[in-house]
Design goal:
Distance between the termini: 101 Å
Number of strands: 7
Largest sheet: 4 strands, mixed
Strand content: 15-25%
Helix content: 25-40%
Shape: rod-shaped
Radius of gyration: 27 Å
Structural class: alpha+beta
Number of helices: 4
Length: about 150
Protein backbone atom coordinates (compact mmCIF):
# COMPACT_ATOMS: atom_id res chain seq x y z
CA UNK A 1 0.00 0.00 0.00
CA UNK A 2 2.81 2.40 0.81
CA UNK A 3 4.43 1.69 -2.58
CA UNK A 4 1.14 2.61 -4.30
CA UNK A 5 0.94 5.81 -2.23
CA UNK A 6 4.54 6.74 -3.10
CA UNK A 7 3.90 6.07 -6.79
CA UNK A 8 0.75 8.22 -6.66
CA UNK A 9 2.64 11.11 -5.06
CA UNK A 10 5.43 10.82 -7.62
CA UNK A 11 2.98 10.86 -10.57
CA UNK A 12 1.13 13.85 -9.05
CA UNK A 13 4.41 15.77 -8.56
CA UNK A 14 5.57 15.09 -12.12
CA UNK A 15 2.16 16.19 -13.44
CA UNK A 16 2.36 19.46 -11.49
CA UNK A 17 5.92 20.14 -12.73
CA UNK A 18 5.03 19.44 -16.39
CA UNK A 19 1.86 21.55 -16.16
CA UNK A 20 3.81 24.43 -14.60
CA UNK A 21 6.46 24.30 -17.34
CA UNK A 22 3.85 24.20 -20.10
CA UNK A 23 1.93 27.08 -18.53
CA UNK A 24 5.06 29.23 -18.20
CA UNK A 25 6.01 28.60 -21.85
CA UNK A 26 2.49 29.48 -22.95
CA UNK A 27 2.61 32.79 -21.08
CA UNK A 28 6.01 33.59 -22.59
CA UNK A 29 4.68 32.93 -26.09
CA UNK A 30 1.63 35.09 -25.46
CA UNK A 31 3.76 37.93 -24.08
CA UNK A 32 6.05 37.79 -27.14
CA UNK A 33 3.15 37.96 -29.62
CA UNK A 34 1.57 40.89 -27.78
CA UNK A 35 4.88 42.76 -27.80
CA UNK A 36 5.34 42.14 -31.55
CA UNK A 37 1.77 43.16 -32.36
CA UNK A 38 2.41 46.50 -30.68
CA UNK A 39 5.27 47.22 -33.12
CA UNK A 40 3.14 46.78 -36.27
CA UNK A 41 2.47 50.18 -37.89
CA UNK A 42 -0.95 51.26 -39.09
CA UNK A 43 -1.14 50.37 -42.77
CA UNK A 44 -3.40 52.04 -45.30
CA UNK A 45 -4.53 50.99 -48.76
CA UNK A 46 -1.71 51.62 -51.22
CA UNK A 47 1.10 51.23 -48.67
CA UNK A 48 3.97 49.02 -49.77
CA UNK A 49 5.69 46.87 -47.16
CA UNK A 50 8.78 44.70 -46.89
CA UNK A 51 10.12 42.40 -44.20
CA UNK A 52 13.55 40.80 -44.28
CA UNK A 53 12.94 38.88 -47.53
CA UNK A 54 13.59 40.37 -50.99
CA UNK A 55 9.85 40.59 -51.73
CA UNK A 56 7.72 43.71 -51.50
CA UNK A 57 3.98 43.61 -50.84
CA UNK A 58 1.16 46.12 -51.36
CA UNK A 59 -1.86 46.67 -49.10
CA UNK A 60 -5.12 46.70 -51.07
CA UNK A 61 -8.42 48.48 -50.27
CA UNK A 62 -9.59 45.50 -48.19
CA UNK A 63 -6.43 45.65 -46.03
CA UNK A 64 -5.00 42.45 -47.49
CA UNK A 65 -1.40 42.10 -48.68
CA UNK A 66 -0.56 41.32 -52.32
CA UNK A 67 2.90 40.45 -53.61
CA UNK A 68 4.77 41.99 -56.55
CA UNK A 69 5.88 39.13 -58.84
CA UNK A 70 8.99 41.05 -59.92
CA UNK A 71 10.73 44.36 -59.48
CA UNK A 72 9.31 45.66 -62.76
CA UNK A 73 5.74 45.50 -61.41
CA UNK A 74 6.84 47.26 -58.24
CA UNK A 75 8.67 50.03 -60.11
CA UNK A 76 5.61 50.66 -62.32
CA UNK A 77 3.70 51.79 -59.21
CA UNK A 78 6.42 54.26 -58.12
CA UNK A 79 6.49 57.70 -59.69
CA UNK A 80 10.28 57.80 -59.92
CA UNK A 81 10.70 54.22 -61.28
CA UNK A 82 12.76 53.18 -58.23
CA UNK A 83 12.76 50.44 -55.60
CA UNK A 84 12.14 52.82 -52.68
CA UNK A 85 8.97 53.97 -50.96
CA UNK A 86 8.14 50.91 -48.88
CA UNK A 87 7.64 50.47 -45.12
CA UNK A 88 9.80 47.85 -43.38
CA UNK A 89 7.86 45.68 -40.92
CA UNK A 90 8.80 42.79 -38.65
CA UNK A 91 8.13 39.16 -39.47
CA UNK A 92 5.55 39.01 -36.66
CA UNK A 93 3.77 42.06 -38.07
CA UNK A 94 3.73 40.55 -41.56
CA UNK A 95 2.40 37.24 -40.22
CA UNK A 96 -0.50 39.08 -38.56
CA UNK A 97 -1.66 40.62 -41.88
CA UNK A 98 -4.35 38.91 -43.93
CA UNK A 99 -4.02 37.69 -47.50
CA UNK A 100 -6.67 37.44 -50.23
CA UNK A 101 -8.89 34.37 -50.09
CA UNK A 102 -8.79 34.01 -53.89
CA UNK A 103 -5.65 33.97 -55.98
CA UNK A 104 -3.75 35.24 -57.89
CA UNK A 105 -2.68 37.45 -55.05
CA UNK A 106 -0.14 39.42 -57.04
CA UNK A 107 0.01 43.03 -58.16
CA UNK A 108 0.23 43.57 -61.90
CA UNK A 109 1.73 46.52 -63.74
CA UNK A 110 0.08 49.88 -63.11
CA UNK A 111 -2.33 50.47 -66.01
CA UNK A 112 -0.78 52.60 -68.75
CA UNK A 113 2.69 52.46 -67.27
CA UNK A 114 4.34 49.60 -69.09
CA UNK A 115 4.71 47.93 -72.46
CA UNK A 116 4.75 44.15 -72.05
CA UNK A 117 6.28 41.56 -74.38
CA UNK A 118 5.94 37.85 -73.94
CA UNK A 119 9.26 36.00 -74.33
CA UNK A 120 7.81 33.62 -76.94
CA UNK A 121 6.33 36.31 -79.21
CA UNK A 122 7.22 39.61 -80.87
CA UNK A 123 3.80 41.11 -80.13
CA UNK A 124 3.68 44.06 -77.75
CA UNK A 125 0.93 44.86 -75.25
CA UNK A 126 0.04 47.73 -72.94
CA UNK A 127 -1.58 47.11 -69.55
CA UNK A 128 -5.07 48.59 -69.29
CA UNK A 129 -7.26 49.16 -66.23
CA UNK A 130 -8.55 45.90 -64.81
CA UNK A 131 -5.19 44.21 -65.55
CA UNK A 132 -6.12 43.47 -69.15
CA UNK A 133 -3.64 43.54 -72.00
CA UNK A 134 -4.24 45.39 -75.26
CA UNK A 135 -2.04 44.67 -78.27
CA UNK A 136 -0.25 47.69 -79.70
CA UNK A 137 1.92 48.22 -82.75
CA UNK A 138 5.68 48.72 -82.65
CA UNK A 139 5.18 52.35 -83.75
CA UNK A 140 2.75 52.98 -80.88
CA UNK A 141 5.15 51.33 -78.45
CA UNK A 142 8.04 53.55 -79.59
CA UNK A 143 5.88 56.66 -79.25
CA UNK A 144 4.67 55.49 -75.88
CA UNK A 145 8.18 54.85 -74.53
CA UNK A 146 9.73 58.15 -75.69
CA UNK A 147 9.16 60.83 -73.05
CA UNK A 148 7.36 63.90 -74.27
CA UNK A 149 8.39 67.41 -73.30
CA UNK A 150 5.85 70.15 -72.84
Amino acid sequence: MTDVLKLGKRIFTIGVVVTTIMWSLGVATLATSVANAATCPTLNAGDMIKFGKPVIYAVNNAGKVLYFPSGDEFKSWNTNDSYGGYITVTQACFDSLSVPSAYPGGVSFRPGSYVVKRPSSDLLYVVEPGNTLAQISTTDAKAYMVPTTK
